[in-house]
Structure of DUF2892 domain-containing protein:
Amino acid sequence: MFYAKNLPHWERVLRVLVAVAATGYTVVNWSHSVWAVAAGLSAITLALTGLVGFCPMCAVAGRKPVHKG
């Protein structure tokens, strides 16, 4: 990999679960709310960072890479 993962396993799982919930909200309320669009965009971001294990904003904030051990 070209980057060091900076999200622990539990946070990656949590991000994917929240992304699934946000996607459900988006599907149900897509045409009724601007919040549904925002939830859909957030779901994409959460799912990608959760699946990849790297969050660029956490890296900017100074979060250290996760060490396996």
